[in-house]
Structures are given as structure tokens and as C-alpha cells.
Amino acid sequence: MKVLVLGAGGIGGYFGARLAEKGVDTTFLVRERRYAQLAERGLRVQSIHGDVQIAQPQLIRAGEEAGPFDVVLLSNKAYTLAESIADIAPYVGEETVVIPLLNGIAHMELLWEKFGRERVLGGLCFIETTLNADGDVVQTSPIHDAVFGEWEGGLSERVERIAEAFSGVNGSMRASANIQRDAWQKYLFIATLSGITTLMNAAVGPIRESAYGIELTRQLAEECASVIRALGAPIREDIVDKQMDTFRGQGAAMKSSMLRDMEKGLPVEGDHIQGYLLAHAERLGLSTPLLKVVYNNLKVYEQKRSADK
Predict the structure, then answer these.
(1) pTM flag (> 0.85)
(2) Rounded distance, CA 126 to CA 46, Å?
(3) Best CATH choice for the domain 2-176 from the list 2.60.40.10, 3.40.50.720, 3.40.50.300, 1.20.82.10
(4) Does the annotation count 114 as an active-site position?
(5) Are 38 and 59 in contact (CB under 8 A)?
(6) Catalytic residue among 186, 242, 264, 292
(7) By three-state DSSP, how is residue 240 classified?
(8) Pairing, β 122-126 against β 145-149
(9) What is the CA radius of gyration of the chain?
């Protein structure tokens, strides 16, 4: 099986390296600067689950001839989605399957519109990872899972083939028979986690220990869940309770990737994650006061970032 990974940052670099480590034919589609960095240094992963170095990763830049590919893994940020779709389009053939590992849900419509529902699986990942100053992937979370499946449910023959090819990696790259539910529930968790950590500008530990940290985190989760349920998404009735248990059990130093991006002065996915929910809340007449505060905080950050540039 031939796999194309869009990007070699924290997520694409990690899961792509694990696939290459196993022996899967894996190619990385990267920008010029990252291409030069990886060509010189190789793809290096520092992980609590074991380090790996791919000395000569297979690399291409947008527009170069390559393929055909059986699977395209999207690991980009949502704010680069339009550009990313254009970059991978030449490598998506009649039998290619696209698996997005982006946060949120809004990207699915754009991928379906471009490639057709039949070529796009649902996908998500659970991992804490970033790039260090040398461009190495640093992975720190006990969980390092990628999940994929047919959006309408069930385990198809093609999903089982992909699952078989991905089996045995150092990590978990597994199929789900209910990826739509999984994706919405992950969306709820990441909207809450990224929202509360960016609002408080703190990791999970200090938030939990603060006077109203747990209360405010639950309020944000309940507001987000109310919007998701109003949209008819198939989330569990007890999902907020389950995710609050997860929040309480996170390591004290745990930060959302959005907070890490803010600390580096990078763009954030506020419109794609919190903004998407807030727009639907306003359309549906739902009250989400804390979600508004979270989103406003992200927009203020963007304004300050733009002014600084």
C-alpha cells in the first residue's frame, strides 16, 4: 500500500514516521523549507513510546510527479485547507482514499465537494505532539491514536484493507465502525480543551486547581455539546461526564495544540473549531455565553498577531 502524508509536522511527521518505521511505502508532501530540512537532517521523532529516525524519508513538493497513492493522510491545520486540497488533488485517483486527521467537522464538506463522498473517510487522532527548534517531532502523550472509518458507519472492505496495512505500527492506527460519532465526540473534547486552555492561557493542571476551573470547563463543554446535539450529531448522552473525567485525569502539563500555537505566535483554528459551533448556535438561537468569550479571546489574539506582523 502506498501512502501520501500531507505535511511532516507534529501529526503528519509522527504517524508518517511510524508507518515508514513499520515498512509501509510512505511519502511526505511538504513545503520547500521543510523539504530542505528533512532532506538534510532526516525525519526524527522523540517520543515517550520510543524514538525513531527515518534517515532518508521519501519527499515530494506540490506539483512533482508521484503516485498513484492508495491513501492520502491529511495532517494540515484547518486554515490551510483550501491550499492543501489543491496540493493533493493531482495525487487523488479513482481508487485513492483521503483520510483527514484535522480537528473539527467543517472540513468534511469541503473534502466531499472536491473529491466526492466516496473517496473521503472520516478520521481523527488523539496525540500531544509538536516540533522543536530543530524541526524534530516531539511526542509526549500516553495516547498516540489515529482512527478512521466510513462516514456512514460499518467496516467496509477498503477500510479493513487499510487497517491491515496500518496494523503493527508503534502506536494505534485503527478502524472504527462509527467514525461519525467518534469525530463529533473528539470535536467536543478539543473545542472544550482548546477553548479553556487558551482562555486561561494555562495547561490543564493550573486550570483544575483554580477556584472555578472545573466549573467553567464543564460549562464550556455543556454549551458546545448543546450545539452539537442540536445539529443532530450522534454523541453519547453521558459524553460530557465522560470527557470531564478525562479532563480530570490529564497530566498537569497537558496543553492543547492551539495553546501551543499561540505561545509560538502562530495562526490558530478558532474559526474552524469554536467559530463553527458559535455560528450554528446563533443560527439556532442557543445561548452559549462562555463559548462567545472563548471565541472573542481567540479573535483578539489574531488581531494582536496581525498588528505585530
Answers:
(1) yes
(2) 17
(3) 3.40.50.720
(4) no
(5) yes
(6) 186
(7) helix
(8) antiparallel
(9) 19
